[in-house]
Design a protein that fits this description.
This protein is an alpha/beta fold. The chain has a domain of 167 residues: Rossmann fold. It contains eight helices and eleven strands. The strands form two sheets. Strands 3, 4, 5, 6, 7, 8, 9, 10 and 11 form a nine-stranded mixed β-sheet that branches. The chain has a two-stranded antiparallel sheet with strand order 1-2. Helix 3 links the parallel strand 4 and strand 5. The longest helix has 13 residues. The protein is globular, with a radius of gyration of 17 Å.
Amino acid sequence: MERCEHLWPHGPRFYWDEGCFPPSTDSFLLAAFPRLRRGMRVCDLGAGAGLLGVLLLSREPSLAVTGIEKDQHACGYLRRNAEENALPMTAVESDMRFSLESLPRQSFDLVITNPPYFAPNSGAVAEGRRGGARTESTATLGDILDAADALLRYGGELAMVYRTERLGELMQEASNRRLTPKRLRLVHARFDAAPSMALVLYKKGGHHGLTVEPPLLLTLPDGRESNEVKAAYFREKEETQ
């Protein structure tokens, strides 16, 4: 069944159905993480129905966003979300491992991705489309980083959200591709919970020097939603309308 919802009151409309990976907190947090500049050229790897692009363009309308998505069904929704909201978001229906022939190399200022978190046959996720989107069944971490390295200009940035238990692997694989970690922020469900996700920003060819930012809490000790979550979900727009 198709769904259409305003991402916040009077905000952009987002279309998707059970054939697409649904909107998730990690995508909202990731879209709020990179520091956007006017006119940046952005590539979303594994874009799905285009949620990251819609959120990024809501923060900086001058961006030029290209979304790469191999699933024909999801890519159709990506195009629809761009058209319905009149956004400068281009859909490329292609496997990211083979799409570089049709895209200019070293031409993007920012690559962003909410990638599969789990290795194949790890038993960590459920079966079905959502579970499949969370496992490296068609694109490994190395494939994603290879694509980012090829697409980014020198000095460009890669923004990712990833599971904390695989951070060591991520750091090693990124280092092998001249992607230097510059910012790291751990995400905690509560103040007394271990982090489950990490937001990481890499710079292609960057000098060493990693900033570990304060923890991002989803829920404050008193049970209220944190200000960071409110900002990621554009809650301040709701409160002013």
